[in-house]
Amino acid sequence: MVRRSTALAVTLLFCGIVGAGAVGAQAVPSSLSLSEARELARQNNPGYLAARNDIDLADWEVRSAYGAWIPSASVSGNLGWQGQGEQVLAGPLSASQFGLSNLPDYYSSSYFAGLNWSLNGQTLFAPSQAKASRDATEARVTESQVAMEAEVTRLYLDVLRQREGLTLAEQQLERAEFNLRLAQAQADVGTATLLDVRQAEVQVGRSEVAILVAENARMTARLRLLEQIGVDPAQEVDLSTTFELQEPAFDGEALFDEALQINPSLVALRESREASAVDVKIARSAYFPSLSLSAGISGFAREASDPSFLIAQAEAGVESRLQQCLTTNELFSRLADPLPAQDCSQIAFSDQQRQAIISQNNQVPFNFTQSPPSATLSLSIPVFQGLSRQRNVEAARVQEQDVRLELRAQEIALRASLAAGLGQVRTAYAAAEIEERNVALADEQLRLARERYQIGDIPFVDLVEAETVKAEADRDLVAAGYAYQDAITTLEAAIGRPLRDR
Length: 502
Known about the structure:
Elements: H1 2-20, E1 31-32, H2 34-44, H3 46-67, E2 72-82, E3 88-90, E4 93-94, E5 106-119, H4 121-188, H5 194-229, E6 238-239, H6 252-262, H7 264-284, E7 290-304, H8 308-333, H9 351-361, E8 369-370, E9 374-380, H10 388-454, H11 460-495
Parallel strand pairs: 1-6
Antiparallel strand pairs: 2-5, 3-4, 5-7, 7-8, 7-9
């Protein structure tokens, strides 16, 4: 009763600690299969989701590369102000030297709308480079997914392993309690000593400790699994998938040929090789001519803050023309043969002219004066730029060759990994079969030891030794079985797909 209460207290403590930090996390089904665990990890694992976000950015890189083929458009406008006072017109000349003094404040506005388009080798090959980079990104995300699912499988197996370890610990406790009752019965009839009883009690205590350790290991494994899945780790789940020990019948060459096609690392390297090949083309395109086109329209407006200055200028101009007309008439009248006088009465500053000046001054901000449109087409042919272009070509070519060599090295390593993995699977299967026989022999040995102890043929220490052999055989069988499953999981990760139908 004390043992059960202690185990329950440990469980509640773990749930309380984890539950305090798991508020708002996604729940999982009470019965969780391996395929469901993998699917939940694809939906919730933060590391995998962060890697998958790179695909969205890669898609926009492709769109941006194609967008570079489209002319860019820009529209701009500005407003300006110039205070009154002396203004410098050009070089050392000022406005007062032209009779323009005490100029008023001026406001100005302008706009510009233009199109720009250019085409060169880098722009031409940019979409191919972006698509190759996107394919490489997708392959790396797939690689991350395979690694994540393999880790989920390992943790799933570990939970099952620890659960079986707990079951074995409970069975060992039951056997220890049976041995204790057996020793007490033998002591009651005088065929066993008090020392045998005390040894049996020690075995019971050790078995209780083993249960506490096994329960802690089971809860820790469960927490690690739910953490990897990315869901609420405070809840209990029942793992429903079972794993059987099956004789491996894999064809090594067939698996290698399949892995060459679907192994995520190899696929990512192949896509990186394609991107490197495009990089070589882009480096060589530095020798290509480049074409650019630009066109634009613009307008401007200028307005005096006080039109009185403009009116005064216009009145002064009219007065000057009137004085010139009068002077000319006087000269004509003094000639020996006088010329007919001009009609100076027509020269006068009218209210209509005043209103026209005021209206024409009202320009800012949108009464623009249109400037002539402009367009420019240019072709640039690079002739000599030192050796930098060829250096960039060689650097890109070397990078491509390095990726090819890395791909070849990965293929060789993959063959070695598959061969080692298949050997490990076969070895683990053979070891598990041997451990099954060992368990059967240990069962028989324990049964015989109990019978001989009951008749007083052997001491209690021999019974304890038989119990120890049985416990070790059970643990070794569980370890061998899950070593086989772990080896299958490693082989799945190397190939890039599951080998067990779940």
